[in-house]
């Protein structure tokens, strides 16, 4: 095990985790907590120190995007958010047109706060709407109702944010196709440039999964969830949204740059407790406990001069799990993530990164998947390999696990 970064990093995406929520939703297994608001001040100081340590460690690389996620970033007073952004601007290079996203819950959205976000350079707001059925919002443990969510979206647009996204969920206990159609109709009438739409995953240990186990709530029907997904594809397709990733739809030009960076398996740095990072030849995550995170950073000396020479674990005291990655793992991750995108995997980028063409490395696997109608090249007539993209077909999207397992099996031969 070694923890020296394999090569110089020119650009990377930055994720900032805010582990505070007013209350915990019944389905949520994210590393986030309610009732620890008194830690917000010391958490901001700790996070700023982590920003400074990484900026020095990586020699102030340029950021391609910044994403405040959680948790509930909008739950923080803007003064904390502004301090964090200021520290990021000092420790990293920030291009003028950088995408800066902040996740917000509808009940936190106020005009004054939105103006403060704008002044701080935040230019994309992602709102956790989840549903526009009040009974389902209650069942999920959300703090807002449908009207609050719609008003929040309208306020955000009125203030001048043109890049606004909402999160919605389907496949919920007690959710009917009629409910979902209504939520979709209402949401699409808001004229949003981006929607992220997820199927509920019942995560082990959450109150909702317990309620389903005990029979208090009905188990969501996977066939009904599949129908909801089909309806979503059809309806948003008719409205000219591009279904650019399995769970994401956007008007042209509003695809999330931050998330595309993940799906292209490019480097990203995650700050805050439990945040994950991927840098060339390694991935790692921070310790999950916010208290321990604050404690360790408070007891770390800011030695910015020599940090670029040390290993990452000696520089940043909050790293918990660190895994060195083999080229095989990086290749399989690139395939697994890239095939989520409608554009698929670029032959040229793959060649530049791994030194072999997709065809050369995976000829028989790709041929059998193409013959079975699971994959295709974006252009059968492409004569130049560097124009080609390897993509899943519609059938391949339904059987994506099968496709990936073929690549895994071939990689062990
Ligand atoms: S607001 Fe979001 S992060 Fe917080 S508990 Fe609910 S789902 Fe989880």
How big a fraction of the residues is strand?
A: 15-25%
Major beta sheet summary: 9 strands, mixed
- Number of helical regions: 16
CATH topology assignment of the largest domain = TIM Barrel
* C-alpha geometry: globular
Provide the CATH top-level class of the largest domain. Alpha Beta
Total beta strands: 15
Assigned CATH architecture of the largest domain: Alpha-Beta Barrel
Computed Rg: 22 Å
Mean pLDDT across all residues, rounded? Answer: 94
Q: Which blocks of ≥5 consecutive residues have pLDDT under 50?
A: none
Portion of residues in helices?
40-55%
User: What is the CA–CA distance across the termini?
Assistant: 25 Å
By CATH, the superfamily of the largest domain comes out as: Aldolase class I
Helix-strand makeup class:
alpha/beta
Which ligands occur here? iron/sulfur cluster
| Main β-sheet, spatial strand arrangement | 7-8-6-5-4-3-2-1-9
The tally of structural domains comes to 2
Explained architecture:
With 413 residues, the chain is an alpha/beta fold. The protein folds into 2 domains: 11-263, Aldolase class I (TIM Barrel); 344-411, no CATH class. 41% of the residues lie in helices and 19% in strands. The chain is built from 16 helices and 15 strands. It has helices at 40-57, 78-91, 111-119, 134-140, 146-159, 177-188, 207-214, 222-238, 257-263, 290-298, 312-315, 327-338, 347-354, 358-371, 394-398, 400-411; strands at 11-18, 62-70, 99-104, 124-130, 164-170, 194-199, 242-245, 248-250, 268-271, 276-279, 282-286, 319-324, 345-346, 375-377, 389-392. Strands 7-8-6-5-4-3-2-1-9 form a 9-stranded mixed sheet, with helices on both faces. The radius of gyration is 22 Å and the shape is globular. The mean pLDDT is 94. The site of iron/sulfur cluster (SF4) has 11 residues, from loops. Iron/sulfur cluster binds at residues 21, 24-25, 28, 30, 32, 70-72, 105, 128.
């Amino acid at each position: 095990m070694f923890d020296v970064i394999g090569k110089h990093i020119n650009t990377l995406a930055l994720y900032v985790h805010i582990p505070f929520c007013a209350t915990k939703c019944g389905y949520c297994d994210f590393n986030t907590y309610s009732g620890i608001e008194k830690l917000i001040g010391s958490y901001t100081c700790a996070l700023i120190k982590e920003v400074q340590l990484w900026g020095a460690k990586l020699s102030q690389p340029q950021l391609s995007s910044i994403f405040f996620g959680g948790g509930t970033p909008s739950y923080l007073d803007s003064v904390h958010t502004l301090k964090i952004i200021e520290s990021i601007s000092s420790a990293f290079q920030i291009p003028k047109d950088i995408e800066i996203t902040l996740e917000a819950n509808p009940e936190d959205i106020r005009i004054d706060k939105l103006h403060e976000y704008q002044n701080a350079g935040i230019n994309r707001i992602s709102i956790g709407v989840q549903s526009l059925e009040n009974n389902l919002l209650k069942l999920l443990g959300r703090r807002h109702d449908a009207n609050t969510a719609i008003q929040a979206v309208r306020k955000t647009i009125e203030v001048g944010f043109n890049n606004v996204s909402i999160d919605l969920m389907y496949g919920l206990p007690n959710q009917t196709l009629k409910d979902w159609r209504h939520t979709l109709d209402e949401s699409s009438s808001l004229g949003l440039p981006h929607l992220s739409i997820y199927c509920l995953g019942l995560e082990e240990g959450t109150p909702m999964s317990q309620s389903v186990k005990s029979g208090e709530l009905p188990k969501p029907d996977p066939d009904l969830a599949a129908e909801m997904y089909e309806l979503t594809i059809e309806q948003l397709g008719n409205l000219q949204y591009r279904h650019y990733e399995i769970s994401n739809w956007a008007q042209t030009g509003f695809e999330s740059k931050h998330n595309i960076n993940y799906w292209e398996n490019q480097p990203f740095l995650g700050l805050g407790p439990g945040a994950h990072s991927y840098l060339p030849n390694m991935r790692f995550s921070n310790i999950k406990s916010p208290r321990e995170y604050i404690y360790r950073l408070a007891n770390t000396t800011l030695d910015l001069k020599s940090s670029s020479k040390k290993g990452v674990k000696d520089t940043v005291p909050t790293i918990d799990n660190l895994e060195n990655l083999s080229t095989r793992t990086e290749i399989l991750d690139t395939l697994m993530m890239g095939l989520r995108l409608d554009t698929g995997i670029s032959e040229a980028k793959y060649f530049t990164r791994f030194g072999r063409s997709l065809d050369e490395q995976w000829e028989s696997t790709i041929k059998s998947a193409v013959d079975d109608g699971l994959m295709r090249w974006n252009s059968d007539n492409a004569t130049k390999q560097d124009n080609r993209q390897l993509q899943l077909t519609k059938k391949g999207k339904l059987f994506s696990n099968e496709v990936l397992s073929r690549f895994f099996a071939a990689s062990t031969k």
